[in-house]
Amino acid sequence: MPSETTKPIRYIPLSYNHADSQASALRLVLTLNPHWEGPDNQIEFVRFTDGITNTLLKIINRKPGLSEEQIDNESVLMRAYGNHTEILIDRERETSSHALLASHGLAPPLLARFHNGLLYRFLRGRPASHEDLVTGIVWRGVARRLAQWHAVLPTEASAAPAEAVPMTRPVDVESLKLKKDDLTLITPQQPGPNMWTVMQKWILALPTATDEQRQRRLNLQKELEWVVRELDDGTGLGEGGLVFSHCDLLCANVIVLPDGVTTADGDATATVNFIDYEYATPSPAAFDIANHFAEWGGYDCDYNMMPTRTVRHQFLSEYVRSYSHHRGIPEESQPEIVERLYEDVDRFRGIPGLYWGVWSLIQAQISQIDFDYASYAEVRLGEYYAWRRELDGSRAQAGEEMPLRERRWAQEA
């Protein structure tokens, strides 16, 4: 008998309607759980608003006599996709990633798909704030859990549960009706979907209605080509330098569980889980970690919150201890791995700015969410170009002050 995480995923032929939220969500959950109908049931909806891409609802049935924990254990999360986000996110791959994670006990069971979203089990705990991320009790938990992801999850799509979902295919540029124009597409070292091919797909999807837009897309493509030449070298942790990564480990996607653990040396460490697997794909471990560090500043990009050299080293030491535990790496090898990973994360510190900058330029064109994506794109791309200027020395040659993000990154303690 297949388990809840490996049995074929049910498809419900209904849609969530953003303009008729409660009624359409109710139809979906009653189709999933017909036993929730009737006078003994009291269904409630809780909207989570931290995300800037999708609608996320917690659907609760407050049946009389149940404790809060029992109610939570039966609750359902409904994720409905934002308009046109299929341009940015491979939804088939998201579903296969969720099924893969659930089969390893790293995600809540996936209950059903519907036309424009997913239904899955609620995960108890509270979303972290970006202030939480900088506290030792939380970042130690994040380091341990992220290392577990990178150590135990396979990077090949064929390693997902065979019965769960059909596998995604490599991006077909022509089928997406995207114009290559005069762009030279990248050829990453590892075939198949990964962080590099995602960035290529996004650049191809950038608007090209004006000469300015076409030139910007060409410039960003050249940056991607340069980055791939410099950083996609097949080294690093994992298979061919890639591990299965979350790629969107912002504070709201870190769930702090009600209980915690205490290590032998007395450092309290929270138990955390990760949610939202839309962007999960193979990537260099250093990118996933650098991307998480970038989120310590929150949506407002408060660079004063960025981890210093000392804190990054402590985080990576915790990460490598956990990674080594799951991979069976002897303790005497760990210090060398920490130092090498520390250097790799430093090399990747500017890439999240390019990644989310391009993403935001697309969102500025397609999203109906009340968020200033255009301004956010300039902030994130500014991080990338500031990193580039530190690398080539042009900022120092111009006699300009080092930007706050770079100063904070270079700070010792």
UniProtKB/TrEMBL annotation:
What pathway is this protein a component of? Phospholipid metabolism; phosphatidylethanolamine biosynthesis; phosphatidylethanolamine from ethanolamine: step 1/3
Question: What keywords tag this UniProt record?
Answer: Kinase, Transferase
The cellular component terms of Gene Ontology attached to this UniProt record, alphabetical and capped at eight, are: cytoplasm
Any keyword Metal-binding?
Answer: no
EC number, as in UniProt: 2.7.1.82
User: Which Gene Ontology biological process is one annotated for this entry?
Assistant: phosphatidylethanolamine biosynthetic process
The record's similarity note reads: Belongs to the choline/ethanolamine kinase family.
Tell me what this protein is called.
ethanolamine kinase
